[in-house]
Amino acid sequence: MAQESKISTAIDATQLSAIKEKLAGLQTDLSGILTINLTGKDRKDMLKMGDKTLAFVEKALEFANQNPTLVPAYINLEEANKDFALAKSLSDIQKEFIPLVRGIEDAKMVAGSEAYDAMLLFYGAVKGANRSNQAGVQAIFNELQERFPRRPRNRAK
Asked: Which of 132, 111, 88 is nearest to 5 (CA)?
Protein backbone atom coordinates (compact mmCIF):
# COMPACT_ATOMS: atom_id res chain seq x y z
CA MET A 1 0.00 0.00 0.00
CA ALA A 2 1.47 3.35 -1.03
CA GLN A 3 1.94 6.12 1.50
CA GLU A 4 -0.39 9.11 1.38
CA SER A 5 1.45 12.30 0.47
CA LYS A 6 0.11 15.66 1.66
CA ILE A 7 2.72 17.63 -0.27
CA SER A 8 4.38 16.77 -3.56
CA THR A 9 6.24 19.68 -5.05
CA ALA A 10 9.75 21.09 -5.19
CA ILE A 11 11.65 24.35 -5.16
CA ASP A 12 14.14 24.27 -8.01
CA ALA A 13 17.55 25.96 -7.83
CA THR A 14 16.34 29.00 -9.81
CA GLN A 15 13.36 29.54 -7.51
CA LEU A 16 15.50 29.07 -4.40
CA SER A 17 18.05 31.57 -5.69
CA ALA A 18 15.31 34.12 -6.47
CA ILE A 19 13.76 33.70 -3.02
CA LYS A 20 17.14 34.09 -1.32
CA GLU A 21 17.82 37.24 -3.38
CA LYS A 22 14.50 38.75 -2.31
CA LEU A 23 15.21 37.91 1.34
CA ALA A 24 18.69 39.43 1.05
CA GLY A 25 17.07 42.55 -0.39
CA LEU A 26 14.72 42.76 2.58
CA GLN A 27 17.64 42.34 4.97
CA THR A 28 19.46 45.15 3.16
CA ASP A 29 16.36 47.36 3.28
CA LEU A 30 16.03 46.74 7.02
CA SER A 31 19.77 46.74 7.83
CA GLY A 32 19.60 50.03 9.72
CA ILE A 33 16.85 48.62 11.93
CA LEU A 34 17.91 45.00 12.43
CA THR A 35 20.86 45.96 14.62
CA ILE A 36 19.46 44.94 18.00
CA ASN A 37 20.07 41.47 19.40
CA LEU A 38 18.12 41.02 22.64
CA THR A 39 18.97 38.32 25.15
CA GLY A 40 16.26 36.15 26.65
CA LYS A 41 16.49 38.21 29.85
CA ASP A 42 16.17 41.46 27.86
CA ARG A 43 13.02 40.14 26.21
CA LYS A 44 11.58 39.00 29.53
CA ASP A 45 12.28 42.29 31.32
CA MET A 46 11.21 44.68 28.55
CA LEU A 47 7.80 46.33 28.29
CA LYS A 48 5.88 44.79 25.40
CA MET A 49 3.50 46.53 23.02
CA GLY A 50 0.71 44.40 21.61
CA ASP A 51 -2.33 45.64 19.70
CA LYS A 52 -4.13 47.02 22.78
CA THR A 53 -1.01 48.73 24.07
CA LEU A 54 -0.36 50.12 20.59
CA ALA A 55 -3.78 51.80 20.68
CA PHE A 56 -3.02 53.26 24.14
CA VAL A 57 0.38 54.59 23.05
CA GLU A 58 -1.11 56.06 19.88
CA LYS A 59 -3.83 57.90 21.84
CA ALA A 60 -1.40 59.05 24.56
CA LEU A 61 1.01 60.37 21.92
CA GLU A 62 -1.84 62.21 20.25
CA PHE A 63 -2.69 63.91 23.57
CA ALA A 64 0.99 64.61 24.34
CA ASN A 65 1.50 66.21 20.92
CA GLN A 66 -1.65 68.33 21.39
CA ASN A 67 -0.71 69.31 24.96
CA PRO A 68 3.07 69.78 25.07
CA THR A 69 2.86 71.70 28.37
CA LEU A 70 1.75 68.46 30.07
CA VAL A 71 4.78 66.53 28.82
CA PRO A 72 7.49 66.24 31.52
CA ALA A 73 10.88 67.65 30.52
CA TYR A 74 12.52 64.22 30.83
CA ILE A 75 10.37 62.80 28.00
CA ASN A 76 11.74 63.34 24.51
CA LEU A 77 8.44 63.58 22.63
CA GLU A 78 10.10 63.71 19.22
CA GLU A 79 11.92 60.44 19.97
CA ALA A 80 8.73 58.87 21.36
CA ASN A 81 6.93 59.75 18.11
CA LYS A 82 9.76 58.22 16.06
CA ASP A 83 9.81 55.08 18.22
CA PHE A 84 6.06 54.66 17.90
CA ALA A 85 6.10 55.15 14.12
CA LEU A 86 8.87 52.56 13.81
CA ALA A 87 7.09 50.10 16.11
CA LYS A 88 3.88 50.51 14.10
CA SER A 89 5.68 50.04 10.77
CA LEU A 90 7.52 46.96 12.06
CA SER A 91 4.25 45.57 13.39
CA ASP A 92 2.70 45.97 9.94
CA ILE A 93 5.70 44.21 8.35
CA GLN A 94 5.57 41.44 10.97
CA LYS A 95 1.86 40.86 10.30
CA GLU A 96 2.73 40.20 6.65
CA PHE A 97 5.45 37.72 7.62
CA ILE A 98 3.57 35.71 10.26
CA PRO A 99 1.38 33.72 7.83
CA LEU A 100 4.34 33.33 5.46
CA VAL A 101 6.62 31.94 8.19
CA ARG A 102 3.82 29.72 9.51
CA GLY A 103 3.18 28.36 6.00
CA ILE A 104 6.90 27.67 5.51
CA GLU A 105 7.07 25.91 8.89
CA ASP A 106 3.99 23.81 8.12
CA ALA A 107 5.20 22.82 4.63
CA LYS A 108 8.68 22.00 5.98
CA MET A 109 7.18 19.91 8.77
CA VAL A 110 4.94 17.93 6.41
CA ALA A 111 7.69 17.40 3.81
CA GLY A 112 10.21 16.42 6.48
CA SER A 113 7.75 14.09 8.20
CA GLU A 114 6.85 12.36 4.95
CA ALA A 115 10.51 11.91 3.95
CA TYR A 116 11.45 10.66 7.43
CA ASP A 117 8.49 8.25 7.54
CA ALA A 118 9.37 6.84 4.12
CA MET A 119 12.99 6.32 5.11
CA LEU A 120 12.03 4.67 8.41
CA LEU A 121 10.05 2.20 6.32
CA PHE A 122 13.08 1.76 4.06
CA TYR A 123 15.29 1.23 7.12
CA GLY A 124 12.88 -1.45 8.33
CA ALA A 125 13.15 -3.18 4.95
CA VAL A 126 16.96 -2.95 5.13
CA LYS A 127 16.91 -4.46 8.64
CA GLY A 128 14.80 -7.35 7.35
CA ALA A 129 17.08 -7.88 4.37
CA ASN A 130 20.10 -7.79 6.69
CA ARG A 131 18.56 -10.43 8.98
CA SER A 132 18.07 -12.58 5.88
CA ASN A 133 21.75 -12.08 5.01
CA GLN A 134 20.90 -10.53 1.64
CA ALA A 135 24.07 -9.72 -0.30
CA GLY A 136 25.28 -6.10 -0.24
CA VAL A 137 22.94 -5.00 2.56
CA GLN A 138 25.30 -5.15 5.55
CA ALA A 139 27.15 -1.90 4.69
CA ILE A 140 23.87 -0.01 4.17
CA PHE A 141 22.47 -1.40 7.42
CA ASN A 142 25.60 -0.54 9.41
CA GLU A 143 25.62 3.06 8.21
CA LEU A 144 21.91 3.64 8.78
CA GLN A 145 22.02 1.88 12.14
CA GLU A 146 24.36 4.61 13.49
CA ARG A 147 21.34 6.93 13.62
CA PHE A 148 19.72 4.63 16.18
CA PRO A 149 22.32 3.79 18.83
CA ARG A 150 21.41 0.86 21.00
CA ARG A 151 20.38 1.66 24.52
CA PRO A 152 21.66 -0.56 27.31
CA ARG A 153 18.95 -2.86 28.54
CA ASN A 154 18.06 -2.77 32.22
CA ARG A 155 17.95 -6.33 33.38
CA ALA A 156 15.68 -7.12 36.28
CA LYS A 157 17.57 -8.74 39.14
From this structure: 111
